[in-house]
Specification:
Elements lengths: L1 H6 L4 H10 L4 H16 L5
Length: 46
């Protein structure tokens, strides 16, 4: 999903804004930040 959003030039901030609007929790947004960091750096482990 994040790859597709990046290809369509949607910023992570806009995605998070939309998620908040439909009722996602701040914890879910934190998890999204974590996954985006892993996706962009390729670091999935410690």
């Amino acid at each position: 999903m994040l790859d597709r959003a990046a290809a369509e030039v949607l910023s992570l901030a806009r995605i998070k804004e939309a998620m908040l609007a439909v009722g996602h929790t701040r914890n879910a947004l934190h998890q999204l930040d974590s996954w985006e960091s892993r996706r962009t750096t390729g670091k999935f482990g410690r």
